[in-house]
From TrEMBL, chains A, B:
GO biological process: lactate catabolic process
Matching PROSITE patterns: FAD_PCMH
Source organism of this protein record: Esox lucius
UniProt keyword Methyltransferase present: no
Assigned GO CC terms: mitochondrion
Pfam families: FAD-oxidase_C (PF02913), FAD_binding_4 (PF01565)
Database matches in SUPFAM superfamilies: FAD-binding/transporter-associated domain-like, FAD-linked oxidases, C-terminal domain
Chain ranges of the FAD-binding PCMH-type domain: 40-220
Record-given protein name: Probable D-lactate dehydrogenase, mitochondrial
InterPro entries registered for this protein in UniProt: FAD-bd_oxidored_4_C, FAD-bd_PCMH, FAD-bd_PCMH-like_sf, FAD-bd_PCMH_sub2, FAD-linked_Oxase-like_C, Oxid_FAD_bind_N, Vanillyl_alc_oxidase_C-sub2
EC number of this enzyme: 1.1.2.4
Gene Ontology MF term list: D-lactate dehydrogenase (cytochrome) activity; D-lactate dehydrogenase (NAD+) activity; FAD binding
Compartment(s) of residence: Mitochondrion
Amino acid sequence: MIESGLERVIPAFRSVCGEDGVSLSEAVREQHGRDESVHRCCPPDVVVWPRSVEEVSALAKICHHHCLPIIPFGTGTGLEGGVGAVEGGVCFSLRNMDRVLDVHQEDFDVTVEPGVTRKALNSYLRDTGLWFPVDPGADASLCGMAATSASGTNAVRYGTMRENVLNLEVVLADGTIIHTAGRGRRTRKTSAGYNLTNLFVGSEGTLGLITKTTLRLYGVPEAMVSAVCTFPSVQAAVDSTVQVLQAGVPIARIEFLDDVMIDACNRFNSLSYPVAPTLFLEFHGSEKSLEEQVTVTEEITRDNSGSDFNWARDAETRGRLWKARHDAWYAALALRPGCKAYSTDVCVPLSHLPQIIVETKEDLVLNRLTGPIAGHVGDGNFHCIMVMDPNDQDEVTRVQEFTERLARRALALDGTCTGEHGVGLGKRALLREEMGPMAIEVMQGLKATLDPKNLMNPGKVL
Amino acid sequence: MIESGLERVIPAFRSVCGEDGVSLSEAVREQHGRDESVHRCCPPDVVVWPRSVEEVSALAKICHHHCLPIIPFGTGTGLEGGVGAVEGGVCFSLRNMDRVLDVHQEDFDVTVEPGVTRKALNSYLRDTGLWFPVDPGADASLCGMAATSASGTNAVRYGTMRENVLNLEVVLADGTIIHTAGRGRRTRKTSAGYNLTNLFVGSEGTLGLITKTTLRLYGVPEAMVSAVCTFPSVQAAVDSTVQVLQAGVPIARIEFLDDVMIDACNRFNSLSYPVAPTLFLEFHGSEKSLEEQVTVTEEITRDNSGSDFNWARDAETRGRLWKARHDAWYAALALRPGCKAYSTDVCVPLSHLPQIIVETKEDLVLNRLTGPIAGHVGDGNFHCIMVMDPNDQDEVTRVQEFTERLARRALALDGTCTGEHGVGLGKRALLREEMGPMAIEVMQGLKATLDPKNLMNPGKVL
């Protein structure tokens, strides 16, 4: 594309964001051992680094005029190839817009620009007694998390991005700036018109560029305690989860790791957990309420033949415990040095979890694949971290076939092909199966209305 | 319209739902003293009572072919004129579709048809240990509640319909049937494609007819306790609310009533609450957790000069206490026998509540209007129940001007012109001010895509 005329447009980009704000042919890629055989790296033709919404709008207008694809880029930590420039075009790296705006302590809300990551926000909030709990693992940009409808370990208690975004500033494909709930609005609820906020949350950059997001905040819990508990079977771990939720325990995190994942974590972090289905738990609340939450949960896990709890009370021990969970990706990679990984993502109703996990583990063995399982079991959401040799075409094919079978297994159990990673490049065909042709047609209609030239992150989702 | 050719279409309606399923010129109206001078009753030309989604689809196809407006009707309890047939047309009364389908106890979900009201569902669930908490006061149809994005007294703890609808079956204007999250899907979270579910939640019948909704359920709390507490000022009541939320108390209900409202409740229900700003509170949880929630809340209210709590522990006393709150509408009406009422609805960030309530009370006095205030203070949402003589045109005009000033006051404080009643007929101009012209254009684009002939509930929202 560069050769065929994009260079004529570059001066216009430079007039908006200066010499340093435009870079030619620089691949924007994520390098954490992610497997390019699943989502090939597709560098854009140009990268621009706007510093304000006005610059984003001006740049979008240029792209719109010249019919150039626009690829929004936050931190590049997404897992379904969402930032790949499959048709070339202009990558909008938003990292230079990194201000935390308008913390309203009494109203429990904050507005952030797209360069602000979740860790940066929580550092910023440290002295306010407030925090933002949605935690997808990676230190993703909050606007990127809104774009992909991210969630993670705390969602069982605090919800996903869908429940926690109050307003978005969005630049549409033609450069128009809108505020999905009206400019500056930040009420905890509203019935005013169509819910544009949740149309853009999870749209993966295909409907517009998110340049600001207003988020709900929460009071930092008075106390937290974490625990690890081992089970004789997947069924016992899941039964415990269902019963804990039925008992109304407001559990903050309830994470499942299968025997293979635990074994990998043990090796990677020099730990010695029993190699068995395991739950990592975390409780938030007052000291008194923690006591009760823990008592009820312990009773339930014991009734399901769970082990005694392995406790982590102080911040440091809790940090160590959760590091093991958060390092799952690297622990999985370390099982086969030199290999790459791809993390799958499906979600089913809770009661179907034991069946799908057992069947999936059989499938992995049968097809000689390495895929430790970790999941947000309180939401019915889990991942297989597929470790593979990218040079072994046969293995790569087996992984691709396996992930499709897994998604179809979820679909057959009233589930979804993605609970939190999104559709991106890889799950478009599965999305069609999940939604049916009529709902897909509705989605295509919405896309065509908001982006008639199909410039926003083309090739993704639909 | 009947005269101009609609009668040619009637046989087609009858062929779908039989002789008894079609009625000519029958006004479908709500008769609880609602003021028609604010939203005039506009009867449709025809009412149809389909018994299945297939009949809804077949009837919609006939309307689409003949360009007849379609007005979905649940229980008619909406407050912003949403069921008025302002351009005539066909009212789809969905009360004959009244099955509760597929209760999944382990997964905490249920699917209902549009004739099922929230009270009917909770009766049905009585022996399951589960309940659906969203409670807008009226015994509304659950699909209607989805259509209007309803909420009410429990939203501070359990969220609104936006957070509690997992999937919808929708018939579009041309008769196409879609499932917003894919047929039969009911996962607690998903990132699969655009969030169609929350596009239809709150669309007030202008994008399609909701023929099924899948809802999240909750475990019935082990214990509940309610209390009433009186304050020297609005500020003290609101400060208490903010501090209770900051302290992380998972309060289930925190309702504000101003002195005028309390006075009305006292008269209507022969009660003797002090005539002052008052909070009605409810706590849900285990016995132990209630104890702690109550202790923390009492400390906070005392620090803000609140009275001692007036307790309601057993179900009967709690019922009596909340009856007073739920009877607010009738208590307000009883202030001026022979008058009618209109309930306003705005929502602001919590910290702005004292200012807007104080200014609004001054406005009421200045303009000689009767408008007791009741609100879901934990969400920043409140109502003035405007009691007026419908034959006094001057008073009606003053009410209309007052409600617009109130909405604009909310807009000036980062708020919304409607927290839960919706836009309907009355707030279209305010919605434009709230959203700005560009966001309205986006909404119009979405409407035109899904309903190009503008047949779905025309004249509402946009």
